[in-house]
């Protein structure tokens, strides 16, 4: 195999992310032995789930050549919806608890539907559309909650999803693994997944090939909204209240995870497994900094540097595209 | 005549690939020197070296007798080289004038000297005998106009060496004439012109000498008068080619596609055509006459404002690509880059893009890449994809082979009506003959083909009937022996006098 082919393989299979992951994990373990503590590992895996699930949605939107800046706000909306609905039905138990969850997921899907429809039908810029919906959705949740956490989240719900364990693992991790697995199959083995790539690669060619590009775009944003809402529900189960602030920086971190995971900003490429690994990297870095008690103000600086470093490294390994 | 440019032993390697192998090339002052060769022969590498796009690996270069050790785009420009490439270097959002002077604006002490720039630009357009409104934005121009702006931009700095890469690829015959006149003018002023084209007639008419490249090597440089077309083609492909146009037995049967009074606002008015199974119907006309829009409207890419489309006897009120494909009609676009291919995706995915609902590709509802590979093998073999490496990104194929990927898409599903929009623009002789052979196979197996083309010989040799379009209308229908370049041209000519009268 020629060096060029090797290099291409390396880039395509996400070799960079694997290297980064190993390096980050090793560094964390060496610098701070408590990193390997069982409880800490569980904590890392739980936080990983909170990042990986919305990052998968972000990746889908980005492979179609778009962006979803509203991910963080949608999480908060879902959290507030879940808590508010549960507060109105204090006696709910068992499957009845699914009602608030469904409401929350539906709210996320609605945000995605609006985003997708505007992007697809009116050809508006995804960046501007989702920036506006970020603002609107955040405004709604803040107004509704007045910034005060909503209590009344069912204890059964918190115990089962947020604090419980299945096979010794946090349920959220299992859910995240299912989401990632479905995303991998979707991308590699289904027409819809192929259509996401085709629309991002060349929307004209996709339309010419009979791909219903509007539907595909709308589906992408709806999936992103759904996954963001799912994350909001999971976080609510973890913290036991509905909060309008949980999206915080998580929305932007999903973009970082997608980009470090090799998703092209121009659309047309990106793989779920690499994005998941990138999400794990970011979570480990954040965890290591928490353990070593690095000032939280300093942490965002480190995350930004990692993002730029990963992009620069990727470009150098890939080589500047030759003009031939 | 003196040598303005002398290249000796030019070699260029990209990684392990030898793109150019010890090529000698001399350009004399006041000559048009054509470069001939199939895609991948090294023509574009050679002109890119001269333009300074990338450095050479081995070899030496003398410009005006001065040895030049290395070229960058800037150095090359300073040495008097102007290059006009197929990919336009124009910024769509800026005006013609702004583009012409981009990076070399004429300035006073503080402000731009717009009057001087305008005068200079007007003068250049007069030189090349073509007019484009200086204040119009590039994105509003036709491809032909952009091409002319690109040429004017190249000529802005009194270049001594002008490189033209397929300059007529998007021009109609009338526009090409103007370009040829401009070239003659430049020649008379002693400018040396390197002319890359696939069109033999053009080369014969313009060029003084021809250098033929094949597989990165120079085969020979000959005076054009001393070589026949057959000799040149043989030098290009390395063996005598069978006749370029296959003889097709056309057996028109029932009408499969008809439009009645089709109107597309601003480009097509009242167009009624019929296409029968087993025949090739040509659509001729100047660029911008509405040919392409008519084809696109039938496939559902342009909104038709009135009229009717009938496919296999059923009236289609609002065509969309998705349902037209399912009804057996496929459109192959003129602009492969913009509409044909998702360039970052593998060739395989581009070929199967229109056929993912085909059960042959899936197992248990999920796509299987080995099944895809098996399904695309036959169409790609028919088309002769080179290299036969469908897992490579579509961007890594040459123009002709990218076109094959687009065409293969139509072979992946049962298609009975094929609409080709400029299928051979910018592809080499070898790929052209493969496209024609494909058309022959399709038609002889009972498919119908609508062929929209600027290349008259193509229409004359392949079509059973030809519709000529002018300003959005069908102005003539030519049949069998009535299809000659002269007849078709006469309708173009009428169009031009008509336009003059109207103006």
Give the ordered list of helices and strands of chain A: HHHHHHHHHHHHHH
Number of strands of chain B: 22
Q: Which percent band covers the strand fraction of chain A?
A: under 5%
Radius of gyration of chain A, in angstroms, nearest whole number: 20 Å
Brief descriptors of the model:
heterodimer; A: 324 residues; mainly alpha; disordered C terminus; B: 503 residues; 6-stranded mixed β-sheet
Give a short synopsis of this structure.
The complex is a heterodimer of chains A (324) and B (503). Chain A has 324 residues and is mainly alpha-helical.
Summarize the structure in words.
The complex is a heterodimer of chains A (324) and B (503). With 324 residues, chain A is mainly α. Helices cover 74% and strands 0% of the residues of chain A. The C terminus of chain A is likely disordered. Chain B is α/β, with parallel strands linked by helices and 503 residues long. Chain B is 35% helix and 26% strand. In chain B, the strands form five sheets. A six-stranded mixed β-sheet of chain B has the order 6-7-8-3-9-10, sandwiched between helices. Chain B has a six-stranded mixed β-sheet with strand order 16-19-20-13-21-22, sandwiched between helices. Chain B is globular and about 70 Å long. The interface between A and B is medium-sized, with 30 and 38 residues.
Write the topology of this structure.
The complex is a heterodimer of chains A (324) and B (503).
Chain A: H1 3-12, H2 15-31, H3 38-63, H4 71-88, H5 98-121, H6 126-145, H7 155-163, H8 171-189, H9 191-201, H10 203-208, H11 213-239, H12 250-260, H13 272-291, H14 296-318
Chain B: E1 3-14, E2 17-28, E3 32-36, H1 43-51, E4 58-63, E5 66-68, H2 73-78, E6 81-84, H3 96-100, H4 114-127, H5 143-155, E7 161-165, H6 173-188, E8 192-196, H7 200-206, E9 209-214, E10 217-223, H8 229-237, E11 255-264, E12 268-276, E13 280-284, H9 291-299, E14 306-311, E15 314-316, H10 321-326, E16 329-332, H11 336-340, H12 347-352, E17 362-363, E18 366-367, H13 369-383, H14 399-411, E19 417-421, H15 429-444, E20 448-452, H16 456-462, E21 465-470, E22 473-479, H17 485-502
Parallel strand pairs in B: 3-8, 3-9, 6-7, 7-8, 13-20, 13-21, 16-19, 19-20
Antiparallel strand pairs in B: 1-2, 1-4, 4-5, 9-10, 11-12, 11-14, 14-15, 17-18, 21-22
């Amino acid at each position: 195999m020629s060096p060029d082919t090797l290099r291409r393989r390396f880039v395509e299979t996400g070799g960079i992310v694997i290297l980064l992951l190993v390096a980050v994990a090793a560094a964390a373990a060496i610098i701070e032995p408590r990193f390997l503590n069982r409880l800490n590992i569980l904590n890392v895996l739980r936080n990983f789930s909170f990042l990986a699930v919305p990052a998968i949605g972000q990746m889908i939107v980005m492979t179609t050549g778009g962006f979803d800046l509203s991910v963080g706000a949608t999480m908060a909306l879902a959290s507030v919806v879940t808590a508010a609905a549960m507060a109105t039905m204090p006696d709910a138990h068992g499957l009845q608890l699914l009602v608030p969850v469904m409401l929350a997921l539906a709210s996320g899907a609605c945000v995605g539907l609006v985003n997708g429809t505007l992007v697809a039908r009116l050809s508006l810029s995804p960046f501007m559309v989702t920036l506006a919906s970020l603002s609107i959705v955040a405004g709604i949740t803040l107004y509704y909650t007045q910034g005060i956490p909503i209590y009344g989240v069912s204890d059964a719900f918190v115990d089962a999803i947020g604090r419980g364990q299945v096979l010794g693992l946090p349920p959220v991790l299992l859910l995240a693994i299912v989401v990632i697995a479905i995303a991998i199959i979707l991308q590699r083995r289904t027409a819809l997944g192929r259509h996401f790539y085709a629309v991002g690669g060349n929307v004209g060619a996709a339309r010419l090939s009979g791909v219903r590009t509007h539907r595909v775009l709308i589906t992408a944003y709806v999936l992103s909204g759904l996954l963001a809402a799912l994350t909001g529900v999971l976080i609510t189960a973890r913290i036991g209240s509905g909060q309008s602030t949980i999206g915080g920086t998580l929305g932007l971190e999903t973009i970082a995870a997608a980009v470090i995971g090799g998703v092209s900003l121009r659309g047309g490429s990106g793989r779920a497994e690499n994005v998941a690994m990138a999400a794990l990297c970011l979570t480990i870095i954040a965890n290591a900094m928490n353990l070593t008690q690095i000032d939280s103000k300093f942490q965002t600086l480190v995350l930004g540097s990692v993002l730029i470093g990963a992009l620069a490294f990727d470009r150098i390994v890939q080589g500047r595209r030759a003009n031939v | 005549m003196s040598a303005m440019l002398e290249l000796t032993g030019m070699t260029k390697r990209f990684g392990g690939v030898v793109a150019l192998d010890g090529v000698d090339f001399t350009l004399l002052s006041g000559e048009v020197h054509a470069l001939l060769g199939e895609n991948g022969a090294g023509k574009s590498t050679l002109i890119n070296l001269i333009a300074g796009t990338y450095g050479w690996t081995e070899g030496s270069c003398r410009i005006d007798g001065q040895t030049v050790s290395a070229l960058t785009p800037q150095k090359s420009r300073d040495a008097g080289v102007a290059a006009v490439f197929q990919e336009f270097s124009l910024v769509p959002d800026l005006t013609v004038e702004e583009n012409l002077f981009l990076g070399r604006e004429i300035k006073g002490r503080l402000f731009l000297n717009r009057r001087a720039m305008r005068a200079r630009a007007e003068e250049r357009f007069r030189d090349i005998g073509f007019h484009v409104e200086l204040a119009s934005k590039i994105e509003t121009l036709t491809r032909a106009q952009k091409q002319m702006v690109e040429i004017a931009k190249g000529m802005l700095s009194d270049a001594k060496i002008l490189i033209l890469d397929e300059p007529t690829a998007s021009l109609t015959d009338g526009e090409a004439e103007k370009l040829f006149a401009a070239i003659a003018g430049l020649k008379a002023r002693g400018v040396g012109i390197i002319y890359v084209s696939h069109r033999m007639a053009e080369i014969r008419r313009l060029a003084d000498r021809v250098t033929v490249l094949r597989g990165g090597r120079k085969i020979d440089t000959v005076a054009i008068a001393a070589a026949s077309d057959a000799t040149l083609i043989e030098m290009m492909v390395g063996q005598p080619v069978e006749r370029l146009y296959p003889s097709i037995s056309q057996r028109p049967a029932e009408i499969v596609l008809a439009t009645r009074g089709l109107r597309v606002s601003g480009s097509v008015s009242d167009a009624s055509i019929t296409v029968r199974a087993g025949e090739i119907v040509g659509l001729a006309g100047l660029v911008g006459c509405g040919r392409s829009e008519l084809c696109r409207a039938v496939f559902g890419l342009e909104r038709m404002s009135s009229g009717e489309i009938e496919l296999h006897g059923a009236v289609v009120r609002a065509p969309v690509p998705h349902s037209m494909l399912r009804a057996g009609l496929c459109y192959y676009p003129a602009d492969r880059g913009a509409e044909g291919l998702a360039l970052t995706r593998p060739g395989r995915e581009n070929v199967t893009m229109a056929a993912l609902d085909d059960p042959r590709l899936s197992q248990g509802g999920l796509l299987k890449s080995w099944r895809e590979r098996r399904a695309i093998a036959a169409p790609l073999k028919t088309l002769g994809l080179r290299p036969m490496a469908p897992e490579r990104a579509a961007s890594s194929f040459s123009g002709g082979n990218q076109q094959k990927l687009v065409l293969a898409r139509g072979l992946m599903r049962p298609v009975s009506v094929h609409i080709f929009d400029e299928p051979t623009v910018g592809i080499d002789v070898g790929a052209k003959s493969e496209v024609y052979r494909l058309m022959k196979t399709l038609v002889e197996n009972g498919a119908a083909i609508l062929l929209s083309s600027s290349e008259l010989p193509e229409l004359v040799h392949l079509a059973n009937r030809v519709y000529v379009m002018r300003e959005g209308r069908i102005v003539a229908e030519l049949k069998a022996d009535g299809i000659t370049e002269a007849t078709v041209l006469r309708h173009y000519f009428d169009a031009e006098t008509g336009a003059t009268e109207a103006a």
